[in-house]
DNA sequence: AATGCTATTCTTGTATACACGATTGTTGAC
DNA sequence: GTCAACAATCGTGTATACAAGAATAGCATT
């Protein structure tokens, strides 16, 4: 548990939302949450205020908090922005790559290769996250890294669904290879272009997303 | 005043921070704020939690809240991300431009022209904001627009300082012209490139920024 | 039977009280 | 004279109490 209950509750409720334990549109009753977690309403309210500020829930004055339902279109928009940010991170990584970052990327890339070869989509899901985080870090921009991590976290559930799509695992890894090549070659523009394509959702992948979201 | 005190306080304190009434690094005492605004500590705490979630202040457990000092380097990183997001907005605007957005851009661009011609940097500061907001809206991505507005708001104080730099007003307007041309021509890539250059801080403009920040 | 009004209940919003950890100032020892 | 330890004080963290608005159910009226 974190050092104060409010923060702990924020993480706890955030996880519950991101893992779909609280469904979009669901009402979050302060008293219910308080008794459920065995605390008073005060830290619950503080947690909810923070989640509202982040944009995960909406607090309608005097009418309680509900989990925001982004909807397919909004999720698409979020991937669009994510693609742009990752593109920037990639281009910065290509320009600023140092030994530590290079090793981190190589290591996580290697783990992705193993999971992909094994066809283990759960393992790949995790390794893929680490790979992308390594790129954020390699960009050497704290603010950008922070923004990327936040959006990445928020898109996590949808990303997971997407990996279930046929062949996505192997194509994803092939894209990773090209991205690594571009970054290691110091080609920022190419890294940016590839990452935009890798993260963004174009063409049929949008219908895949919609279908997987509807399936929940 | 907003419908509930917490939200009102959040806006109030946020404005105070962004207008430099609360300096970076300054301690925000809950009791002091409560008495100052004539309310109890409860809504003050809720406001602070939200500002912490947004990233404007940092709440160190049991040690109170302090206004975050981004420092020149972090501000540079923020402008870098802003440039990327505006670039995306511009490219989307070029592709999706409709009559309403076109008129909004034309109108705000016209107002910028007048302020620039008059050499009125305060008026230009305001008109420039509206011009950029018109581009965000033209992109037709609610999420992107939201992100742009949030970051724009956070960078507002630094943007203002920058306009004071010699000749910045006229060069800024010339850049606007090229951006408008690209968007109206439907050239998304060019709009993106120009906006990245317009918003980002390269070369000597970084030292201008540092100097203006130090001057406060 | 359906609809509108009113009263009750339930939930949120704010204030206050209390407890615990951090900070600071003072005193004593080396 | 400086440093350390302890005590007092101050501020944060959580709980609870109270007030006010929103939802709901029941009753009356058409």
From TrEMBL, chains A, B:
SUPFAM superfamilies: GntR ligand-binding domain-like (SSF48008), Winged helix' DNA-binding domain (SSF46785). The keyword Transcription applies. Keywords: DNA-binding, Plasmid, Transcription, Transcription regulation. It holds the Pfam family FCD. PROSITE patterns: HTH_GNTR. Residues 3-70 form the HTH gntR-type domain. One of its GO terms (molecular function) is DNA-binding transcription factor activity. It comes from the Bacteria. InterPro entries: GntR_C, TF_FadR/GntR_C, Tscrpt_reg_HTH_GntR, WH-like_DNA-bd_sf, WH_DNA-bd_sf. This is FCD domain-containing protein. The lineage of its organism: Bacteria, Pseudomonadati, Pseudomonadota, Alphaproteobacteria, Hyphomicrobiales.
